[in-house]
Amino acid sequence: MKLKLVSWNVNGIRAIKRKGLFDYIEKEQPDILCMQETKIQNEQLEHDLLYPNGYYTLYHSSYPKKGYSGTAIFSKIKPNSTSVGFGLDKFDCEGRVTQANFEKFTLLNVYFPNGRRDKERVQYKLDFYKDFFAYCENLRKEGHKLIICGDFNTAHKEIDLARPKENENVSGFLQIEREWLDKIITLGYIDSFRVFNKEGNHYTWWSMQTKARDRNIGWRIDYFFITEDLLNNLLNAYIQKDILGSDHCPVCLELDI
Questions:
Q1: Residue 194 and residue 176 in contact, taking contact as beta carbons nearer than 8 Å
Q2: How far apart are CA 173 and CA 62, in angstroms?
Q3: Is 189:227 a contact under the CB 8 Å cutoff?
């Protein structure tokens, strides 16, 4: 069975709905759509967002701070089970993880913290990486094949952003953050896009304030990582840079499961 998965930081699910979310879904027909930064509480979900035609849904909202963070999964395939968070309230309260367990793989849709506010927030981000991937390693020990997608809020290599030298001291490209991506690759997680494309100038986020998208001055911070045991199932991974509506664009993964 061939599957198409899409991950997209939508920068507000109600905003992206007004800008054509359902037109995008109708055209692209993803089997699974993962969204980050949904910025919505469960009680605010309208019928079409809660019950989109042909999809099961799962939402995880931030509860101490409304209109912030949040993740969601739309899936044509009914998961065997679902969950939200990963067992640590200091992270789970921000609505950053939705998990769907399928027969052949486990999907984790994640909105990793942004560290640009201050040093305390950088440490929160680093702690999130540490504890989240400890959780993932436990899943692997239980026999789960993992797909981890979302906004990682970190560009891995110099090739992954337009102006690496200018951003060496900016959260999102700090060496200590980038080392976490080194570490997960060492653990056996594969950056699916780089299996197919080793070139530069491929980005997934652009600053809206500076109209950077018009000049393609961007960062590649949205990923599909898969565990090594899914590599033989991998058909394609690509970036949809021409899809507008958010400061991020969708990234896609195709598998034969």
A1: no
A2: 26
A3: yes
**b/e map 91-100, b = 16+ CB within 10 Å:** bbebbbbbbb
Q: How many CA atoms lie within 13 A of 108 on its CB side?
A: 24
Q: How far is CA 237 from CA 10, 72, 172, 198, 243, in A?
A: 19, 21, 22, 12, 16
The pLDDT, as a whole number, for residue 64 is: 86
Q: Is the dihedral of CA 80, 25, 15, 192 positive or negative?
A: positive
Look up the domain containing 186 and give its range: 2-256
Q: Are 231 and 190 in contact (CB under 8 A)?
A: yes
What type of residue sits at position 38? T
CATH code (residue 218): 3.60.10.10
* Strand runs labelled E in the chain: 2-9, 32-36, 56-60, 71-75, 81-84, 97-101, 106-111, 146-151, 189-191, 205-206, 218-219, 222-227, 234-239, 251-256
Residues catalogued as catalytic:
151
Indicate the pTM of the whole model. Answer: 0.97
Question: Which band of pLDDT confidence, cut at 50, 70 and 90, is reported for residue 252?
Answer: very high
DSSP state of 188: T
Spatial separation of the C-alpha atoms in residues 53 and 76, rounded to whole Å: 9
CA distances from 163 to 39, 46, 154, 158, 220 (A): 29, 40, 14, 8, 12
- In the chain, the number of structural domains is 1
